[in-house]
Write a structure and sequence with these properties.
With about 350 residues, this protein is of the alpha/beta class. The chain contains 15 helices and five strands. The structure holds cobalamin.
Length: about 350
């Protein structure tokens, strides 16, 4: 069961049933009763969080999530198409960090800014830093707004932020992987929760340009770079150590073996993000989430502790003792001993 009520519940039920007509009728009705794009964004956000939980617990297939998301996108577009007033505020580029494919959030932020008469241009999913740098030459925006929903995209966010800063342009960041502290850690100039707060920050920058741009913690960037350089070797070594700890893995199918290596890669990506943002809460959130996802998808959670041990050992073998200690502390404090 979900805790949604009112229109959020109705929207989720239509999304779950793949009922396009139901979605359009509901949105039409809400708009007639005065709902605006911000209200719709809150509603879609609530319904989509439930979509995510269903996938996380293994109750929904990826195809069901995709179908619901495609409809949710349409619901937001219905309102966005009505925004026709010309911009009176400067250009703002809105993009996803490199490696980030959650586009609904930043798209609705771009539309919400257009509604507030910014010349907001949405650049879509995963925007590599070098292409963003090039595009800024063409557009000369007042600011760039970057979105990051998964911790694995934080390094891409940091690179994009640095690329924008090379032009002396400030960067606003948002999305569910971020907090104010993480935003400051990667060198962004501001963090905003949603379009309303994004508009306030941008308006401030418009009227009183930011003097000094943010900078990431150089030590954390260095620590991240040295870890990222050994990524492939760490994954391969962790995988080999894991087979020693769980000999039955050697008999798994090639597809399962590949999946295990991918999962190790994701765990390492979360660890890298925690190092870069110098923020262990990234791992504190990631590990219990991982256990729930594995359990929901029929993988025994008992593999998590050996995987963490194997990863910590391979990190220690290459002198990354501090990172290993970070991972072990997060595991100790957030996971039940036997999981
Ligand atoms: C739909 C979806 C997808 C779709 C996205 C399709 C698309 N076109 O966007 C696809 C299939 C691509 C996808 C992929 C993945 N996903 Co996904 N996804 C979701 C889901 C269910 C909904 C996201 C959404 O549409 N939200 C609706 C919008 C309106 O809300 P929002 O994004 O939060 O945006 C609001 C604010 O955050 C903010 N905001 C957002 N960006 C910005 C930017 C600025 C500048 C500002 C100011 C504000 C701001 O304003 C927005 C409006 O209020 C979420 C669930 C959730 N809880 O978010 C999972 C979720 C985010 N995904 C998750 C995961 C794990 C993945 C994958 C790793 C899965 C996989 N194994 O491949 C990949 C990663 C892909 C990648 N590298 O980006 C996890 C992340 C958990 C974690 N620990 O990191 C979640 C939370 C699901 C879950 N409960 O486990 N996903």
């Amino acid at each position: 069961m979900h805790g949604l009520t009112g229109p959020a519940r109705a929207l989720f039920d239509h999304l779950a049933a793949g009922d396009a007509e139901g979605v359009y009728a509901l949105v039409g009705d809400l708009v007639d009763r005065g709902a605006d794009l911000d209200d719709l964004a809150d509603l879609v956000g609530a319904a989509q969080r439930e979509v995510g939980r269903r996938w996380q617990r293994g109750e929904w297939t990826i195809a069901r999530e995709h179908a619901a998301t495609a409809l949710a996108e349409r619901a937001l577009a219905m309102v966005a198409f009505e925004i026709t007033e010309p911009a009176v505020r400067p250009t703002v580029l809105v993009a996803c960090a490199e490696g980030e494919w959650h586009t609904l959030g930043p798209r609705v932020v771009a539309d919400g800014l257009r509604r507030r008469r910014w010349d907001a241009r949405f650049l879509g999913g995963s925007m590599p830093a070098e292409h963003l740098r090039e595009h800024i030459d063409l557009e000369r925006p007042l600011a760039v707004a970057l979105s990051c929903a998964v911790p694995a995209a934080l390094p891409g966010l940091q690179r994009s932020t640095a690329a924008v800063h090379e032009h002396g342009i400030p960067v606003l960041v948002g999305g569910r992987a971020l907090t104010a502290a993480r935003a400051a850690g990667i060198g962004a100039d501001a963090w905003a929760r949603d379009t309303r707060t994004a508009h306030e920050v941008l308006d401030r920058w418009w009227h009183a340009p930011t003097g000094r741009l943010g900078a990431p913690d150089a030590e954390a960037v260095g620590a991240h770079e040295s870890l990222a350089a050994d990524r492939a070797a760490i994954v391969a070594r962790t995988d080999a150590l894991l087979v020693e700890l769980l000999p039955w893995l050697a008999d798994a199918t090639p597809a399962q073996r590949l999946r295990t290596r991918e999962d190790i890669g994701h765990l390492l990506a979360a660890t890298e993000a925690a190092v870069l943002a110098d923020d262990r809460t990234i791992l504190d959130e990631y590990l219990p989430w991982l256990v729930e996802v594995l359990e929901g998808h029929g993988v025994p959670a008992a593999v998590v502790h050996p995987t963490l041990r194997a990863l910590a050992t391979s990190l220690q073998e290459i002198g990354q003792d501090e990172v290993a200690a970070l991972l072990q502390a997060a595991a100790r404090e957030t996971l039940p001993a036997g999981s």
